[in-house]
Design goal:
mainly alpha; single chain
Length: 77
């Protein structure tokens, strides 16, 4: 097994793990949004003001990580 094959497998593994983690985080955030919307004791404006920055941070961080992995993979070519 040569180094480019190993690097390609590592890039694929990291990309899949990041994508799965992103999916789980997004599903958790959407579930929290939906539960908060229908809870009578929770103000909807408060739910969005608390969870929106966290949602944007998670999405932005994972997209940046995926882009960095992709760019570093193409560096050898």
């Amino acid at each position: 097994m040569n180094s480019t094959d190993l690097k390609s497998r590592l890039t694929f593994t990291v990309t899949v793990m990041v994508a799965l983690t992103l999916c789980i985080a997004v599903l958790g955030m959407v579930t929290a949004f939906l539960l908060g919307l229908w809870a009578k004791e929770v103000d909807n404006a408060e739910i969005f003001s608390l969870l929106s920055p966290a949602f944007q941070t998670i999405i932005g961080g994972f997209i940046g990580l995926l882009a960095g992995v992709r760019l570093s993979h193409d560096e050898d070519k």
